[in-house]
């Protein structure tokens, strides 16, 4: 386990292994992805298993092609010649802006295991420019393993881990439209964690699940919900058969936003144990939320991945890169 860096994998409905063509990015993990206007962007990440090399690659895949055909080549376009591309590993990202066409990166580990760079970078997909964003107020510390969520002009960044001073965070930091940070301190907040997944639900709640708490994976039998409308934390015990606990996995919402599909992750740090089952589904339309079994079939089943990305593109979940 965990000896390989993966290429792009497509999953769900039809399953293909996909190999690169012309411009061919290196395998990587701890990168970021964002799907905007039919382009699936990939940013940075580490191209070595020891995480010593952090790339400043930036490229996209044109997803206007029909995935309902066996894909022999991926239409990659490199944007690595642009100025100001962040070089970050295990960072977080969100799609932001009034037109949902700006990629925002949050934190992450820089070169030489340092945090000596900006907290936030943005890429405007219209003007094709990278900027580092100056923010004000109660500046949150830079950290890794945060999954920020953008809702109604506000960015919510919960938890994360600073692996230089070994500090986990459980504060929820909120960046408003004037780039002013505030620190939301509330009772019932989940304990500090990194490598969790987050999702903005249609009722305005942000769901948080799993991850590492002080090096131990958190059980998937408790879902935390931050209510962005009423500014409060709640938790819910899930029903059904709970999948194994895990960190550094991914989640996507289905198109109806009533199911959360999680993929991969490791269940114990250091022992490199892939969490089982690799793919699991949480039904969000039931009360309490219920884990339902999901059998995966197809010609090609991807391996259990870690530090990969997952994006919904048309009616597919695209898993990209990662380690296994
Ligand atoms: C793929 O698309 C073709 C035409 O666009 C359609 O006839 C066929 O049923 C599709 N196959 C699958 C498996 O969806
Ligand atoms: C990283 O460390 C190497 C070797 O010590 C050094 O040459 C390089 O300048 C450092 N890079 C940064 C960005 O600190
Ligand atoms: C936010 O509030 C929490 C709880 O009071 C505190 O531990 C943390 O240091 C604060 N964060 C910042 C960046 O001030
Ligand atoms: C920034 O946010 C804090 C906390 O919400 C607020 O007290 C302060 O007035 C804000 N500052 C500006 C310049 O908006
Ligand atoms: C869940 O919320 C209740 C209050 O509603 C609180 O007493 C309990 O400690 C919370 N559980 C966890 C695991 O955070
Ligand atoms: C999954 O596969 C197992 C074994 O083939 C079968 O018993 C089970 O009913 C299937 N579950 C679903 C939800 O299709």
Automatic annotation (TrEMBL):
Keywords: Kelch repeat, Repeat, Signal
Cross-referenced InterPro entries: Beta-prop_ATRN-MKLN-like, Kelch-typ_b-propeller
Signal peptide: 1-20
Source taxon at top rank: Eukaryota
Attractin/MKLN-like beta-propeller domain segment(s): 104-320
Protein name, UniProt field: Galactose oxidase
């Amino acid at each position: 386990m965990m000896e390989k860096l993966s290429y792009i994998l497509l999953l769900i409905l039809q399953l293909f292994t996909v190999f690169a063509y012309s411009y061919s990015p290196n395998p990587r993990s701890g990168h970021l992805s964002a799907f905007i206007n039919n382009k699936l962007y990939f940013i940075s990440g580490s191209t070595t298993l020891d995480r010593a090399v952090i790339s400043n690659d930036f490229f996209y895949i044109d997803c206007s092609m029909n995935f309902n055909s066996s894909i022999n080549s991926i239409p990659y376009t490199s944007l690595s010649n642009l100025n100001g591309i962040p070089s970050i590993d295990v960072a977080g990202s969100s799609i932001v802006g009034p037109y949902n066409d700006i990629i925002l990166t949050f934190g992450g580990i820089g070169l030489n295991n340092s945090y000596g760079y900006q907290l936030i970078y943005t890429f405007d997909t219209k003007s094709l420019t990278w900027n580092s964003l100056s923010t004000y107020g109660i500046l949150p510390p830079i950290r890794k393993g945060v999954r920020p969520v953008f809702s109604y002009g506000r960015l919510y960044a919960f938890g994360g881990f600073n692996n230089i001073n070994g500090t986990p965070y459980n504060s929820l930091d909120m960046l408003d439209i004037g780039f002013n940070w505030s620190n939301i301190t509330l009772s019932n907040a989940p304990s500090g964690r990194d490598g969790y997944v987050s999702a903005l639900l249609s009722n305005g709640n942000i769901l948080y699940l799993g991850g590492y708490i002080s090096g131990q994976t958190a059980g998937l039998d408790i879902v935390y919900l931050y209510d962005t409308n009423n500014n409060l934390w709640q938790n819910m015990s899930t029903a059904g058969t709970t999948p194994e606990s895990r960190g550094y996995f991914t989640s996507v919402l289905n198109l109806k936003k009533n199911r959360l599909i999680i993929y991969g992750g490791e269940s114990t740090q250091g022992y490199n144990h892939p969490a089982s089952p690799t793919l699991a589904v949480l039904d969000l339309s039931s009360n309490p939320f219920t884990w339902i079994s999901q059998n995966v079939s197809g010609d090609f089943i991807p391996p259990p991945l870690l530090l990969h990305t997952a994006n919904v593109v048309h009616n597919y979940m695209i898993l990209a890169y990662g380690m296994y």
